[in-house]
Design a protein that fits this description.
Elements (H helix, E strand, L loop, with lengths): L1 H13 L8 H22 L21 E2 L4 E4 L2 H13 L3 E5 L3 H18 L11 H15 L5 H14 L2 H14 L13 E6 L2 E6 L6 H15 L5 H11 L4 E3 L1 H14 L3 E5 L4 E3 L7 H21 L3 H27 L1 H4 L2 H22 L12 H10 L2 H18 L3 H19 L6 H25 L3 H34 L4 H7 L5 H9 L1 H21 L3 H10 L27 H21 L4 H9 L7 H11 L20 H16 L7 H17 L10 H18 L12 H13 L11
Parallel strand pairs: 3-4
Antiparallel strand pairs: 1-8, 2-7, 3-6, 4-5
Helix pairs in contact: 2-12, 2-14, 3-10, 4-7, 8-9, 12-16, 14-15, 14-16, 15-16, 15-17, 15-19, 16-17, 17-18, 18-19, 21-22, 22-23, 22-27, 22-29, 23-25, 23-27, 24-25, 24-26, 27-28, 27-29, 28-29
Length: 763
């Protein structure tokens, strides 16, 4: 909750609108965005291969001759270093360190075992000694020495030791074995062929096959006993010795790792030397891997030489990065200032553009940095698609070019990534700029994949590269990129929609569903208003399409423009099914307050149900500051003097329509409500009536704050006509229908009750 509230406050500061914004505040906002990106982007895309020489790619043709300005060593490639380091590590033996005292402790425990058995008076028992006596002696053996064996093993071991007394032989054998060394690892657990045993700082190098672990030593000892004595209880010896003896050499992991690190560090980073004035590459010569590595080595050598000499070249190189980033971002800002002033002065939209560019740059930095993946994997189309969907395709194009130049220039990706970014970005914008269903995501995948294939094919043919290389790059890098980018864009789209209150066509389609809770509730509580909203939606959609506006936005905005009437539906004429006008019993001021309240209530419901800001605009602006003529005239008649009645009390609070879409809905709302009061409607009467209503709105100044033109107003009226004609088309009178006279009389009664003007009653 704290994060969401902080985010909301942040966006509120960006979204502050005023008729005359402070030039200083605007300059600070733009300056912060600009400086932040100029500093951060070069740092994120910091590489070592864009100073002077390696602005070429392997397989391309050199445009200039390069001669070595001084002697320098050629750096090994990453693959060469990796291979040599692995070989060096493989030569490092595994170290085992001697553990002082372990041998003495083990031999002492073995002596005590033998002594205990010899001192045991078990044989002094009668020959019919029971199993119970054996068990008791075995328990004493375990308690005294901590060695657990079965009664049978103890009995056989006891008998063998007493009969053969192998104490001297056993002690001598193990002393010799310990002198040669017993290790704690089995041969299969040792990775290297050589090992080193360290005793008293003296290293003894052995082959892995010469090592003996404790299990092997016990097996050898039992075999030696069996050669010397008869009826050796081998398994009993194995169980006892495994609990008695310990190795005297233990794996020294720290020492082994230290030696491995020394081996890695001992591998030289360089190989051959390039001498001063030696030609590295000629103009028009193809860049091979060897030539590229020489150029790269020269760059590194220049940087190191500059640091030693204390000159300004490294600083100048970094300054060049910042200057390049500043130039690219300045062009983006210049475009917005010149051709998209609304976005340039909308801090929230500008912040959105900044975030989208940074998102793409961060992804590119992670892929080319820590992950060290090829530049072909960078999903540059994410920025293009997000900008096109959330703002417009023109901004999407500019952002695409900016990202391409940043990646190709500062990051050092070169011509390949620049071309791939621009072409695939433009194709992705075309695929999704009017996204209205999931199928367009799959269409974007196909289009981006084809554009990638086309560009990588062109670059391959241009450089005479192999088709196998092209297929490998496309299959392993570009095709997964083409699939990944649109899917990620679609998944994170809602995050930007909610976070920046941006209404995309995808969101509008969700809101156009008549099963939306608000529309469903409206259809139940105020069915007349619901039907009215549907017709207004059709009118607005037709007009918006005619003048080139977003028809889907106009229709959805019309659906929700009157949701505030749900609170008191009976006070609005379209819901008064009983022909009783509730306003006839109210004072004009109270009626005006009730009508005005539906705008406020609608905005509260929109906030409660998280409707986007562009939909809330339709609720607030569809009446503008229109005067409620019916109740104003009624108030004047009751007061007897026009000066005693304040016209402001009978006007809607506004604001006036700020966009063409809300102006269209205002016209559609007015004409739909008012034309239903026409008697004997004909096409000519309907058109004249509609033109009069719209002209009244214009003369009242309701269109002063939006950029709709007279031509577009006329086009909107033309678009209304076919729908209105359909509403008033002539119907065949069926037998048993209400007689015209009765219907006319009922309408007359409604007029007498003050219900003759739907428009006057707040529609």
């Amino acid at each position: 909750m704290q994060i969401s509230s902080l985010w909301a406050k942040l966006l509120q500061t960006f979204d502050k609108k005023s008729e005359r914004p402070s030039p200083l505040r605007e300059m600070i906002h733009k300056g912060v965005y600009f400086l932040f990106m100029v500093v951060v982007i070069p740092l994120l895309l910091s590489t070592d291969n864009s100073i002077q020489y390696t602005d070429v790619k392997i397989g391309s043709v050199a445009t200039k001759k390069v001669v070595a300005p001084f002697n320098f060593f050629i750096l090994k490639t990453k693959e060469e270093l990796k291979k040599e380091r692995e070989a060096a590590v493989a030569r490092v033996p595994v170290y085992f360190s001697f553990k002082p005292g372990e041998q003495e402790k083990s031999l002492d425990r073995l002596s005590r075992v033998m002594a205990y058995i010899l001192n045991d008076n078990l044989e002094q028992r009668p020959t019919d000694t029971s199993k119970t006596i054996l068990t008791r002696h075995n328990r004493l053996f375990r308690d005294s020495l901590g060695i657990s064996v079965t009664t049978q093993y103890y009995s056989s071991l006891n008998r063998f030791v007493r009969e053969n007394r192998p104490i001297k032989y056993t002690s001598g054998w193990w002393k010799k074995r310990y002198k040669n060394g017993v290790v704690d690892l089995k041969a299969g657990e040792i990775e290297r062929d050589e090992v080193i045993l360290i005793r008293d700082d003296i290293e003894h190098r052995l082959q892995k096959s010469q090592l003996v672990d404790m299990d092997s030593a016990i097996v050898d000892f039992i075999a030696a006993l069996q050669k010397r004595y008869k009826d050796v209880p081998g398994e009993a010896w194995r169980v006892v010795l495994s609990q008695t003896l310990k190795p005297n050499f233990y794996s020294d992991v720290e020492r082994t790792e230290k030696e491995r690190q020394k081996a890695i560090n001992s591998v030289s980073l360089t190989k051959e030397m390039v001498y001063e004035n030696e030609r590295i590459v000629d103009a028009n010569e193809r860049i091979t891997e060897d030539i590229y590595q020489k150029l790269y080595s020269l760059e590194v050598a220049r940087v190191e030489r500059s640091k030693k000499e204390g000159n300004w070249q490294p600083i100048i190189a970094k300054l060049g990065r910042f200057m390049l980033a500043a130039a690219i971002l300045f062009v983006v800002g210049l475009y917005l200032f010149s051709f998209r002033k609304k976005i340039f002065y909308d801090n929230k939209k500008l912040f959105l553009v900044t975030l989208i560019i940074l998102l793409n740059i961060v992804i590119a930095a992670i892929i080319s940095g820590p992950l060290n993946w090829p530049v072909y994997v960078i999903p540059t189309t994410i920025g293009s698609m997000l900008t096109a969907i959330l703002i417009d395709s023109g901004i999407g194009f500019v952002v695409t070019v900016a990202i391409a130049l940043l990646l190709g220039g500062i990051q050092g990706g070169g011509y390949d990534i620049t071309m791939l970014t621009i072409v695939s970005g433009m194709i992705s914008i075309f695929a999704v700029y009017e996204i209205r269903n999931r199928n367009q995501i799959f269409k974007a995948v196909l289009y981006i994949a084809l554009s990638y294939l086309w560009i990588i094919g062109a670059l391959t043919f241009l450089r005479f590269d192999s088709l196998n290389s092209m297929i490998r790059i496309f299959s392993y890098n570009l095709l997964p990129n083409a699939v990944f980018a649109p899917l990620v864009t679609y998944m994170i789209l809602e995050v930007f929609e909610r976070g920046f209150d941006v209404t995309t066509d995808v969101r509008l389609l969700e809101l156009s569903d008549l099963n939306h809770p608000l529309l469903k509730e409206l259809s139940i509580k105020a069915p007349g208003t619901f039907h009215h909203s549907m017709v207004v939606g059709n009118l607005a959609e037709a007009a918006a399409e005619e003048i080139g506006e977003n028809s889907l936005l106009a229709r959805v905005g019309a659906y929700y423009h009157d949701i505030g009437k749900m609170e008191k539906p009976e006070y609005f004429v379209e819901n008064q099914m009983d022909a009783k006008n509730r306003h006839s019993e109210l004072k004009p001021n109270m009626s005006a307050l009730i009508l005005v309240s539906h705008v406020k209530t609608g905005l509260e419901l929109a906030e409660q149900y998280k409707l986007p800001g562009r939909i809330r605009d339709f609720i607030a602006e569809h009446h503008g500051t229109t005067l409620m003529n019916f109740f104003y005239n009624k108030a004047v008649a009751l007061a007897g003097d026009k000066d005693k009645v304040s016209e402001a009390d009978f006007r809607y609070p506004g604001p006036k329509p700020q966009s063409k879409g809300t102006a269209i809905v205002m016209m559609a709302d007015t004409v739909e409500a008012a034309t239903r009061t026409l008697q004997n409607p004909t096409p000519s009467r309907i058109r004249a009536f509609v033109e009069g209503l719209v002209d009244a709105k214009y003369r009242d100044g309701q269109f002063d704050e939006c950029d709709i033109t007279f031509k577009e107003v006329k086009q909107s009226i033309d678009a209304f006509m076919p729908i209105l004609y359909g509403v008033f088309q002539h119907r065949i009178e069926y037998p048993g229908a209400v007689k015209p006279g009765k219907g006319a009389a009922r309408e007359k009664n409604r007029d007498k009750n003050g219900n003759g003007s739907r428009a006057a009653n707040g529609n």
